[in-house]
Backbone:
């Protein structure tokens, strides 16, 4: 296969106009968000004297609404127009970011301002995330869903590379409030993209959302054994291993003593590995096998242990790049296995459950990681988490081995109604 054919395969979903617009808008918006996270963490550590507990509290405030409200957000995604939900969510995020920027520019910023804004963004995210994840299939249809999902991870991790690196430089020159203002403007990228879409070109299934609300979605998942194992692994790795918003700032400040200019490099290094993994997974065209999910989980545990034990800053950068690579390979494999095995009538609720598990466990994980890092040092937040994730992944491999030949390789097809194009009047 020629290089051109490979490139066309990797970017197939970008030939869909609606998804292309969405990707460009999201790249701007998510880059601004990661710039904001870096500036926010820097300010929290400055305001509190490098307090791990304060950083954990901000992270917990941001993700607690995701834990409590995302299942309701998934029900909304199944019931209402996803594009309009996303428009409202991005406008609300812009308002919250603007308020925080104003507080920072006034010179009166306090920790409670940051915690309040983080909690408000968490409420918005509880609606935005399941709507966005399930909206991808409406933009591109079932056949291109794995490619579009991988490209979504690619722009997300591109933003994770660009955002922290740019934020570190901007904080040094203009200060953190300027970064917050840029984040406010960045949300308009997604708003403009959503407004310019052609609703008549969306793929909307003929099946209506199944009745029963959140409970019906939970019963559906409980009856699907092929969904339960990846969801269980996502729960463990997200709770224990994905708390980098707490561990990396502490590692940078307290272990390697970096300044503002290099503060975001650890996050950028991890994001670079994640970006490579996202690009690799763009070639996927079907539902991944269970063993792919398991192998990626094992690799992640090993890489995170290495990151926690890295003796020097350059070694830490390399280890975190490998950690980011393994994390995205695992996350994408689990996401695709779950989403491509779910009927369209339940997809919003199932992806909401995935989001609750993936991000909603962060408040608990962040508080535990902050406590551990405060008691035993920043490195412990990484290597201890890696040991637990590795043990859990190996346990899952042991549980899956006896029945692997019978059920591990059989894909569950996407229902054809997910690929039916809506009529011009449906938007």
Residues:
């Amino acid at each position: 296969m020629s290089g051109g054919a490979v490139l066309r395969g990797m970017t197939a979903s970008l030939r869909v106009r609606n998804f292309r617009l969405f990707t460009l808008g999201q790249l701007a918006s998510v880059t601004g968000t990661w710039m904001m996270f870096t500036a926010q963490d820097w300010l929290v550590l400055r305001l509190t004297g490098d307090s791990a507990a304060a950083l954990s509290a901000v992270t917990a405030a941001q993700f607690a609404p995701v834990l409590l409200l995302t299942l309701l957000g998934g029900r909304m995604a199944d019931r209402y127009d996803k594009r309009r939900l996303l428009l409202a969510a991005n406008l609300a995020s812009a308002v919250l970011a603007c308020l925080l920027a104003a507080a920072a520019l006034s010179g009166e910023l306090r920790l409670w301002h940051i915690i309040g804004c983080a909690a408000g963004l968490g409420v918005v995210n509880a609606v935005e995330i399941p709507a966005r994840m399930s909206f991808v299939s409406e933009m591109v249809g079932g056949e291109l869903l794995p490619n579009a999902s991988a490209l979504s991870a690619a722009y997300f991790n591109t933003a994770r590379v660009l955002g922290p690196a740019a934020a570190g430089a901007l904080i040094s020159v203009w200060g953190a409030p300027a970064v917050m203002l840029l984040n406010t403007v960045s949300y308009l990228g997604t708003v403009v993209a959503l407004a310019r879409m052609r609703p008549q070109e969306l793929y909307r299934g003929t099946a209506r959302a199944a009745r029963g609300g959140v409970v019906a979605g939970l019963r559906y998942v409980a009856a699907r054994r092929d969904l339960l194992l990846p969801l269980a692994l996502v729960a463990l790795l997200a709770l224990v291993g994905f708390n980098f918003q707490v561990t990396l700032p502490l590692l940078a400040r307290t272990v390697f003593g970096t300044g503002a200019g290099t503060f975001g490099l650890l996050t950028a290094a991890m994001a670079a590995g994640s970006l490579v993994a996202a690009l690799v997974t763009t070639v996927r065209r079907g539902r991944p096998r269970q063993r792919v999910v398991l192998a990626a989980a094992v690799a992640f545990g090993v890489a995170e242990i290495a990151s926690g034990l890295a003796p020097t800053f350059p070694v830490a950068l390399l280890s975190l790049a490998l950690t980011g690579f393994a994390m995205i390979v695992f996350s994408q494999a689990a996401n695709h296995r779950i989403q491509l095995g779910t009927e369209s009538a339940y997809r919003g609720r199932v992806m909401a459950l995935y989001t609750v598990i993936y991000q909603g466990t962060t408040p608990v994980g962040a508080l535990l990681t902050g406590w551990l890092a405060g008691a035993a040092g920043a490195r412990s937040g990484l290597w201890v988490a890696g040991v637990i994730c590795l043990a859990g992944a190996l346990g899952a491999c042991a549980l899956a081995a006896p029945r692997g030949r019978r059920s591990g390789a059989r894909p569950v097809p996407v229902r054809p109604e997910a690929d039916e194009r809506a009529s011009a009047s449906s938007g």
